[in-house]
Amino acid sequence: MQFLSDNTASVHPKLWDAMRGADAPDAPYDGDAVSKQLDAAFGNLFGRECRVLWVATGTAANCLALSSMVQPHGGVVCHREAHIEMDEGGAPGFYLHGAKLMLAEGEGAKLTPGAIRAVIDPIRDDVHQVQPHAISITQASEYGRSYRPEEIAAIATLAKERGLGLHMDGARFANACAFLGGSAAEAASRSAGEVDALSFGFVKNGGMSAEAIVFFDTALADVAYYRRKRAGHLQSKGRYLAAQLLAMLDGDLWLENARSANNAAQEVASVAADRLIHPVEANEIFLRCTPAERAALRAKNFDFYDWGADAARLVTAWNTPQEHAVALSKAIASL
Amino acid sequence: MQFLSDNTASVHPKLWDAMRGADAPDAPYDGDAVSKQLDAAFGNLFGRECRVLWVATGTAANCLALSSMVQPHGGVVCHREAHIEMDEGGAPGFYLHGAKLMLAEGEGAKLTPGAIRAVIDPIRDDVHQVQPHAISITQASEYGRSYRPEEIAAIATLAKERGLGLHMDGARFANACAFLGGSAAEAASRSAGEVDALSFGFVKNGGMSAEAIVFFDTALADVAYYRRKRAGHLQSKGRYLAAQLLAMLDGDLWLENARSANNAAQEVASVAADRLIHPVEANEIFLRCTPAERAALRAKNFDFYDWGADAARLVTAWNTPQEHAVALSKAIASL
Amino acid sequence: MQFLSDNTASVHPKLWDAMRGADAPDAPYDGDAVSKQLDAAFGNLFGRECRVLWVATGTAANCLALSSMVQPHGGVVCHREAHIEMDEGGAPGFYLHGAKLMLAEGEGAKLTPGAIRAVIDPIRDDVHQVQPHAISITQASEYGRSYRPEEIAAIATLAKERGLGLHMDGARFANACAFLGGSAAEAASRSAGEVDALSFGFVKNGGMSAEAIVFFDTALADVAYYRRKRAGHLQSKGRYLAAQLLAMLDGDLWLENARSANNAAQEVASVAADRLIHPVEANEIFLRCTPAERAALRAKNFDFYDWGADAARLVTAWNTPQEHAVALSKAIASL
Amino acid sequence: MQFLSDNTASVHPKLWDAMRGADAPDAPYDGDAVSKQLDAAFGNLFGRECRVLWVATGTAANCLALSSMVQPHGGVVCHREAHIEMDEGGAPGFYLHGAKLMLAEGEGAKLTPGAIRAVIDPIRDDVHQVQPHAISITQASEYGRSYRPEEIAAIATLAKERGLGLHMDGARFANACAFLGGSAAEAASRSAGEVDALSFGFVKNGGMSAEAIVFFDTALADVAYYRRKRAGHLQSKGRYLAAQLLAMLDGDLWLENARSANNAAQEVASVAADRLIHPVEANEIFLRCTPAERAALRAKNFDFYDWGADAARLVTAWNTPQEHAVALSKAIASL
């Protein structure tokens, strides 16, 4: 039973249908009828104007978004364990032409205004030190923690005061929205409203190959449009990516999928409160777990990653079967 | 009737089946069972060892291949009208970190050893001038011309003499192979055998989102593996790309599709010999054609691009209906 | 007798004095008392506000200036034979992070609005083609031709219309000013007034290691300040560079030196009117000259560069002895 | 009395003489007679073959050296407080095209094999994480600590085992050599012998504008030759830089100057043993010192930098007058 990652889950049937439905030839790149609906569809979801670019990966989404805010001689404040720092193979250095990631601390891989200030306040305002140009936060965080709207607002306020761009890596934005509750649109709108650009992830949530970069500061999209092509990310048959995104928004499928994954995670978490390293606020579970215990779980056919010597990371997906989650719960309870 | 480009054609049904067939979760990125078959499958096709990376676009394929051969302070000799110079939004400058494209002349957008020498021989061997590190040729060329194996061999010999890498942009490599005839594998192997890396295009030939970078100099692949991730082109569900490629190779579907497109182009060309600006050696037709004639064709519902003031470009695709090609032939004949 | 280049001439004695005069310790980088006088001194010369950065080379000056106007995904229109294209070892590709040089034609290596439009008008306004961000002209040109103020104004007008930055490579700006006549400040001011940034060269004019980047669009200097440090061009003992620049401005030494070089060039040109490939409008002479004639000149101890098969380039410097120029004139006359 | 930094000290009179002595025109760039002596002169000093490039700044020296060892997708292990990380305005990101600095801990800003392994061992050997390509150490360190030859040898061994380049930032290499004692050549040779490239600093040691990049792995110099020009650091009158370097080597002036600075530092340190934050192993003194004490020193006309809230950094130079050092000692003793 698969708890390794949500990034290999099957594609949702509605997305297959949507892609097949877009199979007739149309204008290439993003000139097709489907791509043209994205701005409005996401604008409707967030309740405000936005411009939307599809790309195939979260790394491309993050780095293109940041490249619209950060000059080559600037820096990006992010968490020490942020995906852009740890797991993107140096893509920010490439896309930002050598700009610097400035690493901040923070519980649960979340930033706070204080943690950000601890990084940027000591920077001398001279040419010998790289100056920050933007902040990047991750919703939900690398440890599956969700920023509350007021937490984001506080960071956004700091960003504005300091003249910094604000980017949100939302590889699991859907899971955060599902966790935060309220209507999907409200939750999303409130939490994203103050960021300049959001990498809105769909691949981990039942998509095949489409992520959305949502620019709330629409002027930034002008730069990203050119940079996407320059990075080889402007696919000629973009309608198949756009179709995935529209299908995800349609009837809030994205939220339904995320709720499903989150519920499975809560099912597991509910029996393991004393083992949780982080509160489960999305679809990732970090469990204290000895090597022997991990071996026991694997013997029962559960797949997951070790997380250092004494922990395990378990991730649920949109299609994690309820019975797998239940089985995992029982297995953990019986350790 | 659609003769605008092959880059928007529908996806071949066998590829849809292959993608659906790969829908079960597997290892992420290129660790899945399908991706692991690529080296062998392409090795079999070309009759020699090779290493193969999937990417989503031809621009990424070209630039990643070149980035494995060209240092940031070097240059790439290519045709003045090559895709990397004209239509990739500056991607080579990005991927090669500022290396320079060195533009050569050549009929039909094809290079010759003489044309290459005309560019590189005048370069002083000092640090004030950018030194060439590689040559890039396009098979079939921007004007739908196919290099004969001996033409490629002559360029490859020059490249070796000068210590330059040799890259082939094969966005329409299938069409060139189909035109050159012989068995598909032979033709491909003979023409590609001396290049270091080939961008083998499938998207224009019935694919959805998968191109192959085929490294015949397998050491170069080591660099490209890192660079692909760094460029945000390592999709987490890579199995859907690999599945497209395998389905294309299976039963030589790639060649069948290309023959189909080429045949449609020949159908049109056969009636328009006196109008052809370039011999038709793939699936592109460049016709001398007045504005009035173009209007007449469009009035009959044919879609295509103007090519300057007095010409039209018409492109056929794997699924161009025979009756459309016939109808176009008649319409041209009656101009 | 030395007519190879002005770029190896001795340092003017007044500059040695000025550097020695700056020898006492002062604040590092550009915080010293001498550096702080530059904005005002150049502002006084040009009769308008400007911000001035010293750097050690013309290549650094050109590329830092351009990097303040051109984004990595943009391009710079310059002459096909411009120094930035031909002789800077790919520095623009490095400093501009892969931006593209767009090569225009033009007699005497000078651009015209028409030549610039011939390059930029065919560029499709889409993401597939690199868009121009700036124009770079060279005063005096690579062939020693000087732009008249109205020629620059016409280019500046075009630049403004199209939203492009305008950079002037003034490696031999002094020689152009001296040729154009009028008071130095007036001539300079009129010709430089419409450019955004000027690389004002001093090394070829009797300096040791100091060039000035003069920003008339002072906002651009903010970027260049950071980029200079980032490029390793912020010398810690910058006062020795600033001292060179101030000494050059003092009493219009720069103009005196340039006049001296220009006069020597005119001395030579006056006897060789029928051999001149380009009018002599600065301190460079391009002579039609057979190999045998060149050998004859060299036999008389004149050093110079061949310029292709049938020409020679002769360059005079601030300290070319009058008798050398006369001797060369006679030698040419007697060919 | 000046204890702010050694980077603003006057130029040594012998260097003025040497520069004046090189004033006659010679071949441009590094083709002159003086530049051509550098490889042999440094080879003689180090007792082994090397290739030497002059540049104007330590930042350029460090980054050009590293750019010859590190690909854009790689990383450089350095100390968290290394100059390349803290004080070079992001130059490594620029010169290395986005490669990553990987920050290690270590007392006195020195690295150890253990500290390096703590950084590189956890890096997964996959494309998602940046792989190290080189190590950079600083001799003397940012805190004026000198690596002993055996310490360097241990790091060099690790570098070789892991296939990593080894660079030494020797902005104060002379001071380290002077501290380590033995004959200058021996000490330098032993400590530098295992590094691939050394940035050998002279500007802080009585130079004006010349640093040397010394390549012991001479193949690396091939890349750096092109990169120096590409970075705008190939001055046309390079003979004035080469002359400074030769004058420094002549009669071991570099060592004499460094000893002088070190002696002044020891004079001060000798009275302040209980206040020293770091042992004084070069020409920098880090003193525990309250704000009131610092004010008292400044009232006596001593200039220096605060180092955080409770410390001061005092730096001596080649020409720090003995009486200033004595006066400072007394002032500190009387605090």
From TrEMBL, chains A, B, C, D:
Keywords: Pyridoxal phosphate. Its cofactor is pyridoxal 5'-phosphate. It comes from the Bacteria. GO terms for molecular function: lyase activity. The keyword Cytoplasm does not apply. InterPro entries: ArAA_b-elim_lyase/Thr_aldolase (IPR001597), PyrdxlP-dep_Trfase (IPR015424), PyrdxlP-dep_Trfase_major (IPR015421), PyrdxlP-dep_Trfase_small (IPR015422). It holds the Pfam family Beta_elim_lyase. GO terms for biological process: amino acid metabolic process. Residues 2-286 form the Aromatic amino acid beta-eliminating lyase/threonine aldolase domain. Belongs to the threonine aldolase family. Homotetramer. PANTHER family: L-THREONINE ALDOLASE-RELATED, LOW SPECIFICITY L-THREONINE ALDOLASE. This is Low specificity L-threonine aldolase. It comes from Pontixanthobacter gangjinensis.
